[in-house]
Structures are given as C-alpha cells and as structure tokens.
Amino acid sequence: MTGVPPAWAGLVDDAAIFPPGNAELPDAVATYQGRSDAWYAELVGPLVVRDTDLPNVPPDVPVSVVLTGGAGAVAGVAAVATKKDHRLVAVEAAVRDLDDLAGNVRRINAAVDAARAAGDLADAQVYVELPQTDPTPDWLDAADAVAEAEARLKFRTGGAEAHLFPAAATVAAWIDSALDRETPYKCTAGLHHAVRHRDHETGFEHLGFLNVLLATRVAFDGGTRDEVARVLDDQYANDLVAMARQSDLAGARRWFTSYGSCSVTEPLDDLVGLGLLESPHE
Asked: 1 falls in which pLDDT band (50, 70, 90)?
C-alpha cells in the first residue's frame, strides 16, 4: 500500500450515513472495511456514526460517535464502547443550551470526566460543536471551557439549507478563536471538494477543505482575519495549489485535524486531480 503524505493522512472522516449521502449503516461499514487495503486508505479517519448506531458497528471498525442526547448520552456510549471493546476514536457533542453555552460545555466536560474516572473513553478525543454564529462573548466563554478541558472544537461548515453555510469572515473568526486557545478543531458538512465552489444544483457556496487547511496555515503564521478570509474565499485552484506546494500543510493539520464527509471518493479525486496526491495507478 502506498503511504499517504502526513498533510493528508486521516483528513477525511467517513460520514457516509449522514446527509446528503444517507448510506445505510451496513453498507457504510462494508465500504469502510472494503477500502482497508486501498492505496489511499490512510486518507480516511474513523467511521462517523450516531450513538444509537454503535451497537450495530463491528468492534474492530474505528468510530467517531456523534451524541444525539447531549451530555447525558456520554456515559452510555462510553460504557457500551468499553463493554464491546469498540475502537472509539472520538466522541462528538453539540452544545444545545443556547442560553448558557459555557455551562453546557462544562456539563459535557463533567460527563466525560465521570466516564474516564469509571475507566471508560480512555484515549478517545472529545469534540464540542459550538453554534454557527460569529463569536460572541458567550461563544468565546464556551470555547474557553472547551480549551480548559483539553477537548477540541467542531465547526459546522454546511448543511441542507443556504443559511447553514457560514461566511468566510465567520469561519476565519472561528479559526482565530481556536488557534488563540491552542485548541485543535474539525469541520463537518459541506467540504466535499478541495476548492471553494458554487454547487450547480443547490446554488450553495461551499468552502473547500484545501481552503480551510491553507487558511489555518495563514492564521497560524500570524495572518489577519481578513487575510484568512481571503484564502477561504479563493475559488482559483491554481492559486491554492501553488500556495499548498509552498506551505507546511502537515504542520497545519495539528490544528485542522479532519473533516466529516459523506463521500471519500470526491476529496480523493480532487487531491489526485490537483496533483497534490499521487495515485500509483497513474
């Protein structure tokens, strides 16, 4: 198997069962297991599943579990994973109490701490999804609470409706807030392709995962929010590829850890097509 360079290793979390892919869980598991010997297998991180799906996933499949019940669901997921010896890579929890963001994060932190004290969760990472707003004082307090627990942030960069696709300036502010707290983050939704583009069917403006990775590099190197936003807005593949070839993308991956995508083939095809990943079959 040809190794995948560090800049791309584990970049794509396989979220095949989530919209718009909506794969059936057995099909998603079979496809995940079927690519284990593929030359690009190292591009893919864990299979992303809901907590309600976990009992139906083979224990040897690495999983990132999205909680559907908030902080109260942590204990059950942790116990099931330990009992069934699941390869639990991460737990992903969304803040639900919009009137007390930081308090909600602390409740998640407390549930995680309790699970770990009981001998569960072990090495699993914890990602906390904050609301899709420009950072307010309450939002920043919640980010502080994530950082205090040494958890990670999760940013939603798309969805089924136009308003779920955040502006570049908003994403630049999220990245700045994460780096300011030395907090790694993942993204979810909308990042199927490498380069920012307008979807010809929906008309939605999608960020590109290459844009986000390069923007992370620029922000880490001291770029202003406006400079970071310009990178996020760039739709010219040649510009982005040239920039990528001159940037320490592997270093940026310390902060932008991965993103969830219902498709693995789309980002793979983009990376190969842009000449950023070499296929042994070409």
From this structure: very low
